[in-house]
């Protein structure tokens, strides 16, 4: 495994420096916090400050909500075709500025520039998709049991949506949520993660350039007031919808807080994804799929493989080939063209990796590669073998570059192991037996299944989980439903 932590590596120069916004957006005006406070955003690769943004509080948040509410009626009353056109213009702006957006993303997140570009392009697909879906929000005419009577069903936007996004995919999580909201006719107040606010602000800048009317998109940045701002969004009666991606613990809190006003709420929460390789699988293909699934964003993804189950007869071969792939990783600054994976987001994440490895080793696991931290926020991609269910990693989402390999004997056994978790976001398996593929896909207690693939995300497919992995779906034709309510109109004496 190679590494290059050189801090002298410089990011590419911005083609358009004005995309690197350092103010929040309320009512299409770039503003500071009313208190004048700011907080620093740190590059996790170099641990240097890359900029400051406003430290906004509840009062600032109320201003953003007020702006979104004021803009709602006009935005909702536009034709679907008009909203479609605005979103397509935003989509074009994103693609035209994808290199600068990728630079911002790598600066604040640390992932490789190549991976950042991939996220920007992936995120843009949601804007294009929901632009098209805005014109397909169909109602119904239901046959009435009475003469001279019609039953009409209309779909209308719910109102102002509070959008709370995570740091691991700071561009794509915003586009996936916000484009659906805007397509439905909702306006939004975005609260991006404190670690990665610049991606949100750049997207907002491009939305302004696209002509999206004032107040439709608002961005509130905060670090030390996160709880208070979240509470305001959840309890303010002018906010009709909350969309959140993050931990299950925080999701439960937001759901509880939102109950005070009976808000519509969608939650994309934690995962503990099983990745199963049966002995009839194409092992080389399974290795490639597991690498993609486990180490995307250095494992900092809710759908990353957390427990890799390998049937005993192929366990040694799979482990050997898997380690060979990991040994070729280049760990370093995301702007180094040779880098395949960058740093973890912060020291808290590094400490969690250390705790998981130490616990596994103390309980009998063997480190095949990696297993230790390096300088700063870097942690070597790790492969552990001889894993058992007693180890912390079995029940706790790692959210980092630790691949834990478990051995199993039978299909029934591994299905029971895979489903033995409170989470149910994603699951994966490899097999060449079509009957097994259908059987296992049906039996896994998850919202998304990858069969002979480790990559399942795209704008056309519904993204979301079951059990304690959340509520609702994002992306796909279903993704707009969470921003719409149904109105029944009874028309008599026609």
UniProtKB/TrEMBL annotation:
GO terms for molecular function: succinate-semialdehyde dehydrogenase (NAD+) activity; succinate-semialdehyde dehydrogenase (NADP+) activity. Pathway: Amino-acid degradation; 4-aminobutanoate degradation. Keywords: Oxidoreductase. Its EC number is 1.2.1.16. The active site is at 268. It is an enzyme of class 1 (oxidoreductase). InterPro entries: Ald_DH/histidinol_DH (IPR016161), Ald_DH_C (IPR016163), Ald_DH_CS_GLU (IPR029510), Ald_DH_N (IPR016162), Aldehyde_DH_dom (IPR015590), Aldehyde_DH_Superfamily (IPR050740), Succ_semiAld_DH (IPR010102). Pfam families: Aldedh. This is Succinate-semialdehyde dehydrogenase. The keyword Oxidoreductase applies. Belongs to the aldehyde dehydrogenase family. It catalyses: succinate semialdehyde + NADP(+) + H2O = succinate + NADPH + 2 H(+); succinate semialdehyde + NAD(+) + H2O = succinate + NADH + 2 H(+). Residues 30-489 form the Aldehyde dehydrogenase domain. One of its GO terms (cellular component) is cytoplasm. It comes from Rhizophagus clarus. It comes from the Eukaryota. GO terms for biological process: gamma-aminobutyric acid catabolic process.
